[in-house]
Specification:
Two copies of one chain form a homodimer. Chain A has about 300 residues and is of the alpha/beta class. Helix content of chain A is about 35%, strand content about 20%. Chain A contains twelve helices and 14 strands. In chain A, helix 1 links the parallel strand 1 and strand 2. At the A-B interface, helix 3, helix 4 and helix 5 of A face helix 3, helix 4 and helix 5 of B.
Chain lengths: ~300, ~300
Amino acid sequence: MARYLSITGGVGGAKLAVGLAQILSPDEVLFAVNTGDDFEHLGLHISPDIDSLSYALAQENNKELGWGRAGETWQFITTLGELGGADWFRLGDKDLALHMRRRQLLDRGDTLTQATHVIATALGIPHQIVPMSDDPVRTIVHSDQGDLAFQHYFVKERCEPKVSGFSFAGVTTARLNPLITDWLQDCDGIIICPSNPFVSVAPLLAVPGFLAAIQSIPVIAVSPIVGGLALKGPAAKMMAELKMPATAVAVAEYYDDLLSGFILDQTDAESLALLKLPAIATDTVMVTLQKSEALAQDCLAFLAALPRKTLI
Amino acid sequence: MARYLSITGGVGGAKLAVGLAQILSPDEVLFAVNTGDDFEHLGLHISPDIDSLSYALAQENNKELGWGRAGETWQFITTLGELGGADWFRLGDKDLALHMRRRQLLDRGDTLTQATHVIATALGIPHQIVPMSDDPVRTIVHSDQGDLAFQHYFVKERCEPKVSGFSFAGVTTARLNPLITDWLQDCDGIIICPSNPFVSVAPLLAVPGFLAAIQSIPVIAVSPIVGGLALKGPAAKMMAELKMPATAVAVAEYYDDLLSGFILDQTDAESLALLKLPAIATDTVMVTLQKSEALAQDCLAFLAALPRKTLI
């Protein structure tokens, strides 16, 4: 039995995670999730990436909106706005229940990892969803409007500020989640989902000890950029602002020697020749569960065919 | 211009308060509200009586349910239950927004009085809704199942335990709301709404200084017991358990020499002869706004016709 670690952010990455969960048992894959987007709001602890993944794995993700929970309603946040409360972060009525439950669990002394497990179990998810760390790491967006907390940049300012870089407050003292450390003791491959490299994947890579722990494990990434566009979120806009070409090749170059292999979309197949590492082109636009599963299969086959990493 | 203080609990009393608000301007009536029912739940400060009155005065009360907010939905609490959270206190999605807004206001340093004012204003209510005290007073129900916090008795246990008495934790050190103290400096009459005498009215009467401040002011009460039944809530059940007859007369005797006059329902008109104080019988069953307004008019006319209190 092979065991994989899948690194994912929110909605975009979760599409591949769902495919992996279709073909891998809970003993075969662990989902390591970015918590750099987490924030405290209305007295709640909100973990957008953990929640997006949880909803997706529970098939409770809202397909009409492309984010949030299925069958969502908005009475709470609408009324809060009418009463003069802060309504810029659109918390749905059902989604709010998850955050309140997490608040209760954290208040009773659960770690974020434990709270995530309780909630995932209640949602019927057998797979392990593991926050990258139980210590707070907060992504700060450096922009032409100053340093912004991630959700302020992402939701309140609708990604409009021009970014110049990112930092991850707290990361230097954050402890890598012990469940991840343990999993990496016996792990055959790492799959970086098509999540934003700068704000969904980079925070986890920055947690002390993670890169050292994966030195001997093959790592592949699926490009979140297809045909020069990000399928979801501000990745392409960020790349332009960071003076990078908004291309799959630039994503591969950003990850640099972390990667053993790279998967880009068939749309960008002509770019394969530009890459200096093993790469394949396939259909990465996961508009159906079948396509998610097919891409997951492609990932495993690609990993299996890669030459083993040699320790430096 | 005459000025009145109206003492009220939640839903039952609010029906008369709505009538008073129809015929009296914000300069003519102040609503002094029980906070003994208040409690902390899910990190929120819930003030059931203040909220019932606010919804009623804003014509946002839920007429189908008889409690809570109009147009309510239940996605939050249903989902919270599914996730393993405490769902015994049925917080509606819209109602929850009010509690969250109050939480924010209290967290920024507002008193309960200030938070209540902000929310009432947002709901379009011109009248003053004033908590009896900004200090916490919590009604404890002594019962055959032990001492129960009020909402545990009322909601969680559905008023099933047999009561033997009540206490109001914190009341001896609670400070009467200064807005009430000021109002009573120039007040022509006090109207006790048809609220539960033991758990809606008694907590306010127990706040130090209140009884002394109203010595020279005529006080009338409207019976919450009609034909031996409580129109709303557990008042009649409590009276039986306290070995009192569940009658309007017993309510008048409970209030004792606090009262200058008493109003009971026309159903109980034959009891007028049993009362030792000025009393009238009228239609107190406020099934429409018109009936609320008519009873409010009856209250003012009755108060005007009473002999002035003489200071002892």
